[in-house]
Design goal:
Length: 571
């Protein structure tokens, strides 16, 4: 199959436009369209198509030349398909060139910085009286963007000017699947398994690593250079290769034999700290290669008298010792979950009604769902006024009397105001089954003040679960600074709980903080913060982090049936 590919000269391969180059032009067009008062949906459609194309394995260049139907790919409609054909066949995109020609130079140059929002940047230009990306970079470094236009704008500019070298785990999963398929179908490997940080479920990924089995490694390396049209090979040796993927992260392939398969999975999956501890038991691991003793991971662990260590635990905490003693935790899985404790409805900024959310939760296999709409002060998320919350409480009682198979819990995501008070009066909080309390404002308070604010909120007897504790948005903004030890201690004393917010760009608490909270005896909710009926499935990313923290079902709030939870929530 496809032997003709082998005969292509390097020059021919070079002339193929990579998917990344095609995506750059579509995103550039989106940039210029957005400064033109163009329909924002159209702008978004181009950006979204560009993002999809960057992680597509098939070469769009080849597909166009084979006259294939590009609209088979999600996110590519007729207009975008015809733009792609134009780019491939003529090497140009007329519309982009025209707009570039008409635009003022400071606008035109933004076509190359597709992660910057042109409208926002032009606001910065105006305010700081500058007109180029170079000046923007300078002002950013001197702190002037932040001092004149605020922290969020500075973060946006910094992110837009930094090249992406990392991606969120859920996006890396998509790429992993696509590469795995390519390895089997186009490169003809006999076995392939993702290892490294992605297998350990680390929340941000900068390298995808695979171990593979093949009789012809150099042919696999050659073919992988055709991934997504063209993928740059950074380094290669007889048994390893490193590529730069268009999505911004690297891809590492390592050749392994079937005789050493289990051993290779062990050495390529564990973190450095983990491997160091492991070598305390096994002696130098590399010396075990080539003896053919470890075709599976199970065989390896058995030989050294250890229980199987789940990949998520291979970070170098106490897992090696516990594997020897046979006291590893039995980690929580999706199957253990009985309900959802953080979800929004159309009452605030969700897309589906309370009833629709309830039925979707039941279909997902849950016994209960807490409706946690935003509280009154959070105007940008259509916070619920207190009189409407009273109505909602009565409505949910009615709903529960007619719905079978699911219990709707009366709740709210209550803002923790700057002074640490909660955003509803006690008499209405008392009527709720429980609360999720979150910080949504004033992220810039110092560590001390922010910590005090949360401690104070926890003193309210209607405070149950601290929502997305640090407010971090992965790859966008760090969390606000907190004295986590004090907050965990206070939560333990007051009978409060934390959540792991499963939204892939939050995963907040982090696995590290979850481990600390759980070791202190504080139970954790694994929540999705769903804003629509389609989002319950994202809980698996929260489960990943819970497993990294070593959580067993007994430490997870929503593994409990409602009557037990109800007792825990009453303070
Ligand atoms: Zn929130
Ligand atoms: Zn929320």
């Amino acid at each position: 199959m496809e032997t003709h590919e082998e005969l292509q000269t390097p020059a021919q391969t070079q002339s193929v436009l990579s998917n990344a180059e095609i995506a750059d032009r579509l995103a550039g067009l989106a940039q210029l369209l957005s400064t033109q008062k163009e329909n924002p949906y159209k702008v978004k459609a181009y950006h979204r198509a560009a993002a999809r194309i960057r992680s597509l394995s098939s070469s769009l260049d080849e597909l166009v030349r084979e006259d294939a139907d590009l609209t088979q790919f999600p996110g590519i409609g007729e207009a975008i398909a015809s733009a792609i054909r134009e780019i491939v066949l003529t090497g140009k995109l007329r519309k982009l060139d025209t707009l570039r020609g008409q635009a003022a130079p400071e606008v035109a140059s933004l076509a190359d910085y597709t992660r910057l929002d042109p409208k926002r940047v032009l606001r910065v230009y105006k305010k700081l009286k500058i007109s180029s990306v170079e000046e923007l970079r300078e002002k950013l470094e001197r702190g002037e963007v932040e001092s004149s236009l605020g922290l969020r704008m500075a973060q946006h500019v910094r992110q837009g000017l930094t090249e992406a070298h990392a991606m969120l785990l859920y996006r890396a999963d998509g790429l992993r699947d696509s590469i795995e398929q390519f390895l089997f179908e186009k490169c003809g490997v006999k076995a392939a398994q993702v290892v490294g940080a992605c297998r350990r479920r680390v929340e941000v990924i900068d390298e995808l690593a695979f171990v593979i089995q093949t009789d012809n490694f150099s042919s696999v390396v050659r073919r992988m250079q055709r991934y997504g049209g063209r993928t740059e090979l950074l380094e290669s040796s007889a048994d390893g290769a490193l590529f730069a993927l268009a999505a911004g992260i690297t891809l590492s392939l390592r050749l392994c034999s079937s005789r050493d398969w289990g051993l290779s999975l062990i050495t390529e999956t564990g973190s450095e700290a983990h491997l160091e501890k492991l070598e305390g038991v096994t002696g130098e691991i590399t010396s075990l290669h080539g003896k053919g003793a470890f075709t599976t991971e199970a065989a390896f662990y058995q030989t050294f008298g250890m229980a199987y260590i789940e990949p998520e635990l291979r970070e170098g905490y106490d897992e090696v010792e516990r594997a020897q003693r046979g006291t590893l935790p039995v980690l929580v899985t999706m199957k253990n979950l009985r309900g959802e404790l953080h979800a929004h409805s159309t009452s605030s900024d969700g897309s589906h009604s309370i009833e629709e959310m309830a039925i979707a939760a039941r279909d997902f296999g849950y016994e209960y769902i807490g409706i946690t709409d935003h509280s009154q002060s959070l105007k940008i998320a259509r916070g619920v006024p207190v009189e409407d919350l009273w109505k909602q409480i009565r409505y949910i009682d009615q709903l529960n009397s007619r719905l079978a198979g699911i219990r709707v819990l009366k709740s709210a995501e209550v803002d923790i105001l700057t002074d640490g008070t909660l955003d509803y009066p006690d008499d209405v909080l008392e009527e709720l089954d429980y609360t999720v309390c979150s910080v949504h404002s004033r992220f810039g308070l110092g560590r001390q003040e922010q910590t005090e604010r949360i401690l104070r909120a926890m003193d309210n007897r209607y405070f149950n679960i601290l929502g997305h504790a640090t407010g971090r948005l992965l790859l966008k903004r760090p969390g606000y600074e907190l004295d986590m030890d004090r907050i965990i201690h206070h939560a333990k004393q007051n009978g409060c709980f934390f959540e792991i917010n499963s939204s892939p760009d939050r995963l907040d608490l982090s696995a590290g903080n979850t481990r600390l909270a759980s070791e202190a005896g504080v139970k954790i909710a694994i929540s999705t913060d769903a804003h629509s009926t389609r989002e319950f499935g994202t809980v698996r990313y929260g489960i990943d982090q819970a497993r990294r923290a070593g959580l067993e079902p007994a430490s997870v709030l929503n593994c409990l049936p409602w009557p037990s939870l109800e007792r825990l929530f009453r303070r």
